[in-house]
Specification:
Layout lengths: L16 H23 L10 H27 L6 H18 L14 H5 L15 H24 L5 H20 L11 E2 L3 E2 L2 E2 L3 H27 L1 H18 L4 H27 L1 E2 L6 H14 L5 H20 L4 H15 L3 H31 L1
Antiparallel strand pairs: 1-4, 2-3
Helix pairs in contact: 1-7, 2-7, 2-8, 2-9, 2-10, 2-11, 3-5, 3-9, 5-9, 7-8, 7-9, 10-11, 10-13
Length: about 375
């Protein structure tokens, strides 16, 4: 070849075999799922129902959310137990746009006010709802609101050198405070019921098969793009500094690096990714309410990453998909036992697979090669002795 691998635009992927497989699977799904849903007739045994497409899209959103947590936890040592807040804020920004698209098709027929505002006797649209009838403005808010919160939270904590369990507790307190705030009816976000009953997006029926497939494809594009961004970062000099901060923060600081700046950058980027995941999640599930701010949800995200494999990126995405598939199955088959299954799974992974599913596979292969090598050495030595 005329061009070496190290000079290509995606040279950071050449040594990432797992990432290549992950991206290939995403590409295959992007081709196969639309065919199975839109091309094959419903009578075909290979036809994929639209509800399955939406379910897969939801899993992809969770995979993107897990990816955002793995970026800061797996490569910078920042254990956030409040990332559900950024996910929910991105979801609310999308939900506000979808609510404005309902217009006079709501229960009360008010072209300006959403149904819950009419029910609560609101006289006019709050100032912070203005502009959300425009898709471009809403998308800016999907990025701006979670990103701004992540930047402010990171700036206040990192400049104060808050680390470890203290940062985890503060992040959990942040998302719990937002949970309480969004539960209030006078906040103007639907209170306990949240935002729902969406009709269309960009003029397309949100329940139509084509729209559902388009949202699924958008989720794949977002996940693949964010994976490439994260892989590029962690493979660069910046990534090596982040890993140094994770392993020996004081030493990196002693070398002259402004550790808080690196942390702030990667935390803000992670917040943006979580907001995008929330924005894609809402139109596919049809609702956003304050329960998404629940601290338990943020803890569950960390479990996804730990099970899949912290510090591998694609492992975090895999963990999110596997755990949520298990959740879908067990909440139907054993609804009372699901939380016990999740807790037991986390304990089992911690004890027997401390590196997660992805991290354990190379260790197992290395162990097998070492055992085979010792066996061959022993046989050779025995043969020489017998000779």
């Amino acid at each position: 070849m005329s061009m070496t691998q190290s000079n290509g635009p995606f040279s950071f992927l050449y040594a990432d075999k797992g990432g290549q497989i992950f991206l290939a699977i995403l590409f295959g799904a992007a081709v196969l799922v639309p065919i199975l849903n839109l091309v094959l007739p419903a009578s075909s045994v290979f036809h994929m129902p639209t509800w399955v497409v939406s379910l897969l899209g939801k899993y992809l959103c969770f995979a993107l959310l897990a990816l955002s947590v793995d970026l800061i936890w797996g490569f910078c040592g920042i254990l956030s137990l409040g990332h559900g807040a950024f996910f929910a804020l991105g979801g609310y920004a999308m939900g506000m746009y979808l609510m404005r698209q309902i217009g006079d098709r709501g229960v009360y027929g008010n072209a300006t006010l959403p149904d819950f505002m009419v029910f609560l006797n609101w006289k006019e649209l709050p100032w912070y709802w203005h502009g959300f009838d425009n898709f471009a403005f809403a998308m800016v808010m999907v990025l701006l609101v979670p990103g701004l919160l992540g930047f402010v939270f990171g700036w206040l904590t990192f400049r104060s050198r808050v680390t470890g369990v203290y940062l985890s507790i503060i992040s959990q307190a942040m998302t719990y405070a937002l949970l309480l705030a969004f539960f209030r009816n006078d906040m103007g976000f639907g209170g306990n019921n949240g935002l729902t009953d969406f009709k269309d997006i960009l003029g397309f029926d949100i329940q139509a098969n084509g729209t559902r497939v388009s949202l699924f494809l958008a989720s794949i594009v977002a996940l693949a793009s964010c994976y490439l961004i994260c892989r590029y970062i962690v493979s660069s000099k910046l990534g090596r500094v982040l890993i140094g901060i994770r392993d020996a923060e004081n030493r990196v600081r002693f070398l002259g690096y402004r550790v808080e700046h690196y942390k702030l950058f990667v935390f803000t980027l992670s917040s943006l990714m979580a907001g995008v995941a929330g924005a894609l999640y809402v139109p596919q599930v049809g609702i956003i309410n304050p329960s998404e701010f629940s601290p338990a949800n943020s803890i569950e995200i960390v479990i996804w990453v730990a099970i899949g494999g912290r510090g591998s990126l694609y492992g975090a995405a895999l963990g999110a998909i596997l755990v949520n598939y298990g959740k879908t199955y067990f909440t139907g088959a054993l609804p009372e036992a699901w939380l016990f299954v999740l807790g037991g799974l986390f304990v089992a992974v911690t004890l027997f697979l401390p590196k997660g599913i992805v991290g354990t596979v190379p260790s197992f292969k290395a162990m097998t090669r070492s055992r085979n090598s010792r066996s061959e050495t022993a046989k050779t030595a025995t043969g020489e002795t017998d000779g």
